[in-house]
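Much of our argument rests on the idea that a fold can be written as discrete symbols. Part of our work consisted of pairing the sequence of a single chain with a tokenised description of its backbone. We regard such an encoding as a compact summary of how the chain folds. The amino acid sequence and the backbone structure tokens for this protein are reproduced below.
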Amino acid sequence: MRHIIFLLILCLLNLLSTATAAPFGERIAINSNLLKQERQVQVLLPESYNSNPSATYPVIYLLDGDYNIHGISGMLDMLANKGQLIPDVILVAIADKGTESYRNFMTPNFKQPNKDSASLFASHLITELKPYIQKHYRAAEKSILIGQSIGGLFVLNTLVEQPTSFTHYTAVSPSVWVGQNAIVEKAQKQLLTNLNAPVSLYLSLGDETRMGMYDFINVLDSAPNPQLTWQFKHYPDENHNSVGLIAIRNNLKHIFKGWHLAEQKQATMSATELVAHYHKLLTNWHLKQPIPGSVAQSLMRYFYRNKQVEKIPQFVQQTLTMLPQSQQIIVSKQASYAGHFDSPEMALAILKGIENDQQHSISYLKDVAKTYQQLNQPQKAKLYYKKALNLALKQNANQWQLNIIKEKL
């Protein structure tokens, strides 16, 4: 009997370790008809993905994904999820099959275009991988292709050959020198003729002197095109490997410029102006997401600071017609202010008004539980913390989220 119990405990521990062993999302195998082989990608969804089922997310396609995913995923967690300097994104880290295979698919064959593996791999991304991601995930229209070194050359080649396949291109220290700067001549001949819709290019360089970057920049300078916006940043204090993290971070902040408004800026805007700002951004980006939490707080602060509290219910109702994905964050901030300045009973009534819509939100359930605590109703508070914990486990929430809820229980 003891032996059986011991085996059961070992099985349970094994299951628990398996459940927490994949912090970088879901690894997916895709059979490519174009490449005649199975390809793998790692899809990392934002932490908010399950809490707002109608939201959509821009997609980052990251080359050399198994090598780069650790650094980029951590950076995105701070930049988007926790810092909210950019919207939440889906990260698709594209695996390779070893160094030789990777270099073969990343390096254009400038002398024999009919045997160009790089063009073939680009077609795989565009006609096989992107449709797969759009079908299986809530992907927005915005897509970003990121590559470094030889992957950066692949990014430039894809921009030249099929420029409207992605919305934004990020080439970090691209190997322009390959084939005696052959991508430069190719860009001179093809880039402008193929460009018929707005795209953007972000170039960066570390402390390197032989990458051939400036020859490519001269092409962009000598033949400006209103459809192509581009920028270049030199990082002389970073090397070939370290430059990627800081360059990509800065590129993403520029791509999503306007998403983050500093507190000083928010303080100069009315609640109506803040809502209009984010409605315009989301409309222009064809994106459905909640506004940052700091902005929702500024909306409520505006009415309390200007002694217009009686206008809040109507304002919230009007705002949610323009920003429907922001229901949870706006109403929760409304309840928080009401609980502080008026009463916990009022806060609970406000939260209960959206309960049917927010059963998928861990944050909402925690807010209700906290309000019951303020009302000195520990059993009801415990009930909602249990709901939050069950939902967090179901959604495979991050460990810090589980720790907070468990501590409350």
